[in-house]
Amino acid sequence: MATLGLTARLPAPVDLVYQVVADVERYPSFLPDVARVERQGDLVSMTLRLGLLLVTLVTRARFAPNQSITLTQVRGPFRRFEARWTFVSRGPQTEVAYHAEYELPWWSPLMAVPAGLVMEMQTQRQIRAFEARVRALLDSAPAAG
Predict the structure, then answer these.
(1) How many angstroms separate the CA atoms of 90 and 13, rounded?
(2) What pairing do the DSSP bridges indicate for beta strands 68-75 and 43-50?
(3) Range in 7-21, 75-89, 92-106 with the lowest mean pLDDT
(4) What is the CB neighbour count within 10 angstroms for residue 127?
(5) Dihedral, 110, 116, 118, 119 alpha carbons, nearest 10
(6) Span 75-84, mean pLDDT?
(7) Are the C-beta atoms of 101 and 84 separated by less than 8 Å?
(8) Least confident of 2-11, 115-124, 130-139
(9) Cys-Cys crosslink for 81: which of 1, 29, 102, 115, Cβ 3.0 to 4.6 Å?
(10) Residue 66: exposed, middle, or buried by beta-carbon count in 10 A (0-12, 13-18, 19+)?
(11) What is the pLDDT of residue 109?
(12) How far is Cα 47 from Cα 49, in angstroms, rounded to an integer?
């Protein structure tokens, strides 16, 4: 079993950060690694770009507004995959944490290290894209007052 954990602080209130991360249907418009997303109830099918490959991951998503998003693989490339985004208000900022536990297919023990690095790089890119989207939404919001 492999794990991945990343944390970042984004310069926005928790409700906005949560809203951006929870808006999975919009991912293809601002996340370069996401080719397509389909959501039916709590099932989210996400087609990801891994270099020249397209890989589809179907998860059961549980949304706890402004607190967490938990993903459990229903079908996909892993033997097992569970991930959780958590959101904690830190004044004018939001601490976003991502934690994943996954098991690669039986035939890929030699791919464990490269796969882990790819997943970490993709998650870091996701967090940067979430931050850019949050900043764009803040910049386009009408000024209060």
Answers:
(1) 8
(2) unpaired
(3) 92-106
(4) 19
(5) 140
(6) 93
(7) no
(8) 115-124
(9) 102
(10) middle
(11) 52
(12) 7
Kindly indicate the confidence band of residue 47, based on its pLDDT and cuts at 50, 70 and 90: very high
Place of tokens 């906005």: 16
Considering only 4-18, 29-43, 110-124, which range has the smallest mean pLDDT? 110-124
Q: Which residue has the tokens 């079993």?
A: 1
Short-list 94, 74, 99, 73, CA closest to 84: 99
Cα–Cα distance measured from residue 41 to residue 135, given in angstroms and rounded to the nearest whole number: 29
Report all structural domains of the chain as residue ranges with CATH numbers, in order of start.
2-139 (3.30.530.20)
Whose tokens are 């990801």? That residue is 48
Locate the DSSP E strands across the chain. 2-10, 34-40, 43-50, 53-64, 68-75, 80-90, 93-103
User: How far is 97 from 86, CA to CA, in rounded Å?
Assistant: 5
Tokens linked to 104 = 């690669």
Closest listed residue to residue 22, CA positions, set 59, 65, 75, 60: 65
